[in-house]
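[agent] plan:
  1. take the single chain provided in the ticket
  2. run structure prediction with default settings
  3. attach structure tokens to the ticket
  4. add a short note for the reviewer (M.T.)
[agent] executing step 1
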Amino acid sequence: MKTLFFTLSFIIAGMAMAQHGHEGKSKLSPQEKADKMTAKMKKELNLSPEQESKVRQANLEFVTKNQELREQSKEAKMQNR
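[agent] step 2 finished; step 3 output follows
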């Protein structure tokens, strides 16, 4: 009985964590994602204002490119179906 209880607890906890991990990620625009990445990098790397602007631009390009690749992947999956 204890084993069943623990097993069910772990399954429910895992499902809850999986749901929580995906909240809000797709709701941010590419600009917001790039700004968030830049803010984290600025704090961790002590970037100068000039470096910050260059990093923000690079992050925006990175996020935009990744979003385009995801869309292409979705289209390829749909065509495959």
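[agent] step 4 note for reviewer: The longest helix spans residues 49-80.
[agent] ticket updated
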